[in-house]
Each structure stands twice: as C-alpha cells, then as structure tokens.
Specification:
The complex is a heterodimer of chains A (174) and B (267). With 174 residues, chain A is of the alpha/beta class. Chain A has helices spanning 9-19, 72-84, 108-113, 118-124; strands spanning 3-8, 30-39, 45-54, 60-61, 69-70, 90-97, 130-135, 140-145, 153-154, 157-161, 166-169. Chain B contains eight helices and eight strands. Chain B has a single domain, classed as NAD(P)-binding Rossmann-like Domain (Rossmann fold, 3-Layer(aba) Sandwich), CATH 3.40.50. The longest helix of chain B is centred in the last third of the chain and has 20 residues, at 197-216. Chains A and B meet through β1, α1, β2 and β3 of A and α7 of B.
Chain lengths: 174, 267
C-alpha cells in the first residue's frame, strides 16, 4: 500500500522549532501531531496533518535508558484527543526529531518502544489512521497504521507544502 | 545524459535538478494554456505528472495548441496524447498519469501532487480546483485570459498562486459571488472565449516561473501567494492592484484544519 503524508510548511516549521528546544533533563523532545486519512488512487492512503501538540516539560519522566519518555498525563491527553476527534476520523502521530541531515529511520529503541502506543490509539479512534513520524533536520520518515491493521505501512513520501516545497522520499528498504 | 543538460539553469540551486525531479505536478486541462505549461515543465526537468484532458484536437485549436499540427486535427488526436509525446520526447523516464476524464470525475490521483497548475475556462472550475487544492494540501497556480470589447479589443489575464495558509482567490478579490453568478446565468450560452497563443504563452511562462520558485526558492522570496495581472495590449505583467491593497493576513475561507474528506461532526 502506497502511503503519503502531507503538511503545510508552517506546521513543519513549528514542529521543528519545538522539537529542537532543549528539555531540562530529557535528551530529546517528542510531540503529537494529528492527521486525517483519505484515499489515493490504486488503494493508496494520504494522511493530511492538521495540528501539532507540544508536550509540556513537566509531562516527561526521567528515564536514562531512552532519549525521552513521556508520562501518563501526556498519554491520557493524547488518548482523549483521539477520542474527541473520532467523528472527524482524526488520528494521532507520535513525532520526534533525529538531529542530523538526510534520511532517517527508527532506532532500535524507537522500534521497541513507540509502536506499543498504537493499539491504545486504535482502541479509542478505530476509524482513524495513527502512526509514527521521525523528522531529521531536512528529511523525514513515517509509519501509518490504517484502521483495523496490526502492521504499519511505511510512508513512501512526506510532502511539506510550503515555500520551498519539501519532498522527503523513502529510499531505505528496511 | 550529459551534465551539460541543465548547466544553463544552475542558478536555480545546486540541488535544483533533484528537487524538480521529485515534485509531482498536476495539470488539469491541456488546451491553449496547459500545452504550453507541460512543454516548459518538461524542458525544465519535471519528471512526475498527473494530467487530465478528455478532448481531442480540432482545427479550431490549431491557432494556439502547442505541439498540434494539421494531421492531429484530421486524426482527432487526444490532447493527452500530445502532452505525453511532448514530455516523453524530453524526459523519457518521466512518470505520467494521464487521465482522459474531467478531473472532477477522478480526483484521487490529483491529491498526490505538490503543485497544480490550472488552465481552465470557468470561474466555477477554478473555484473547485482551489477547493481541492486547499483540502488536500497543494499549491494552486491559476492562469486565464480573456478579450473584452469588439471595436477596440483589450486582452487581459491573470496568474495567481493560492497556497495553503495564504490568501485564496476570494481573499485576493479574483473570485467573487457576482462573477460566479454571472457565469452561472450564462450557463449553456457562454460561447467560446477568445484565445490566442501569445497571451497564453506569457501566462504559462509566468506560472511555470512561480512553480519553479516554489520548488527551488531560487529568488529567496518564499512566496505565500501571488496575483499578477497581464495587460495584453501593453504587454505587461504587474502585481495586481487588488493584491497591493490587500490587508488580510489569514484566509477566512479555508481554515487550515479543514482538510481531507468532508466529515459530519456533532454540534
């Protein structure tokens, strides 16, 4: 299944600005971005990102085994937001930044930790697409779980519709 | 392919060739304006196209349809075929999704584009194109020309960039309820609008220039919108007076959260 994510340049800039801020103790920041799923031709899926939620500093918990860990308050907020957005079929994407240039991917820790959040989101927003986005300073990658799926689809392309336009294509095959 | 191919446009940026090749452009309508546009996009290096046209070449098109000749009119060659031939002749590896319908009948492929260049005749279709571009996050660049008056004809036209988050064609004063109502009142009786090749060429070239700037930002202007008015009698393209006086900062017609398929929500 072909998957494509689009966002405005304004939203992309806002997310980069937030995610590059230093946190008092976490080594990196995470956030949530909301997206609406719609169809492309040939069974492909398009996710249109709408708004970003920055996680307040005090909702992180100390855990030196990972770059950042958020606590139950942040997770409860996210679950509620998905629940309230279910009529608009608005899903939620966990997003964080790898602070380098070029294509990026999931680290071993990302792959172990973040996908575990998805079933919870699916349980409160079953008609929406949820997923994970990892940005680099000038690229990005993503995974989307369409409704009723247990496995994610790799996002083939992330488009930033700004000036200039950004087209982040997946070249890695893992 | 030799490295010389794009050497004359290297001022667009060191990685401009790659940026241009990754961008998907949509062109609904491959007539007088669209045929110019696809030709230029192919010369510049665009590789990915979503094209719509259901029409065939007729003799009355030959005054302005780039790439068409007498044989095409006799054979009733589809305009889509002409556009593909033009692109493949310059970019043999291009990916072209050619759709022989009105774009409204099969809109899904258009959603993949980053830029849509609209070369359509009516205000209503322009409005519909702008709506789909806002809902599925695409830059929309519109061109159009008209000729007013018979004794002393005046050629006018416009090139408009409407981008998500920026002012729309209503904000910029181009689309109005009055224009749409007047057009609707002429339904079925509008006749053919006058069209000639050179204004279409000016409008298409300017639109392609805006598209290339959106992809490469070679001017460094990071445009959020544009409304350029063409005076075909004077031979000038200038920023529209309406736009110069525009005070609006945020588009009230297309809120940024109103994207994707329309849904019913609880009140």
């Amino acid at each position: 299944m072909k998957a494509h994510i689009k966002m405005t340049g304004e939203l992309h800039a806002a997310m980069l600005k937030d995610l590059t801020r230093r946190h008092p103790f976490a080594r990196e920041r995470v956030g949530f971005v909301f997206g609406r799923l719609c169809s492309l031709s040939d069974g492909g899926r398009l996710v249109l990102l709408t708004r970003y939620h920055s996680i307040p500093d005090d909702q992180y918990v100390k855990d030196h085994t990972v770059g950042a860990r958020i606590g139950s308050t942040a997770m409860t907020w996210a679950m509620q937001a998905v629940y309230h957005g279910r009529l608009a079929r608005e899903g939620i994407f966990h997003i964080h930044l790898h602070g380098h240039r070029g294509e990026t991917g999931m680290s071993a820790t990302d792959g172990r930790e973040i996908p575990r959040l998805i079933p919870g989101f699916q349980s409160v927003g079953r008609d929406a697409g949820h997923g994970i986005i990892i940005l680099s300073l000038d690229h990005g990658c993503g995974w989307v779980w369409v409704p009723e799926s247990t496995e994610p689809a790799h996002v083939d392309c992330i488009s930033v519709i700004g000036s200039p336009i950004g087209v982040f294509e997946r070249r890695r095959t893992e | 392919m030799s490295k010389d191919r794009y050497s004359r446009q290297s001022f667009l940026g060191a990685n401009s060739e790659e940026l241009i090749s990754r961008c998907t452009v949509g062109v609904p309508g491959l007539g007088g304006g669209g045929s110019h546009i696809v030709q230029q996009l192919a010369h510049i290096g665009f590789q990915r196209y979503v094209l719509y046209d259901y029409d065939v070449v007729e003799e009355s098109n030959l005054n302005r349809l780039v790439g068409a000749n007498l044989t095409d009119a006799l054979a009733e060659t589809p305009k889509l075929h002409l556009a593909k031939k033009m692109i493949y002749g310059l970019q043999p590896k291009a990916s072209i999704l050619g759709i022989p319908f009105k774009w409204q009948d099969k809109p899904e492929p258009l959603r993949e584009c980053q830029i849509v260049l609209g070369c359509v005749d009516s205000y209503k279709t322009r409005e519909e194109l702008e709506i789909i571009c806002r809902r599925y996050l695409m830059h929309y660049i519109d061109i159009g020309m008209d000729v007013h008056g018979k004794d002393k004809p005046v050629i006018g036209g416009q090139i408009i960039q409407s981008s998500p988050g920026g002012p729309c064609m209503r904000c910029m004063g181009f689309l109005t309820d009055e224009k749409l109502a007047a057009e609707a009142a002429l339904y079925g009786n509008a006749g053919h609008r006058p069209q000639v090749i050179w204004p279409n060429g000016v409008l298409a070239s300017t639109a392609v220039g805006l598209a290339v700037d959106l992809v490469t930002n070679w001017t460094g202007r990071s445009r959020t919108h544009a409304y350029l008015a063409y005076d075909g009698n004077e031979g000038t393209v200038r920023e529209s007076l309406t736009l110069r006086n525009l005070a609006i900062k945020e588009c009230p017609h297309f809120p940024l959260h109103e994207v994707g398929d329309p849904v019913l929500v609880e009140l």
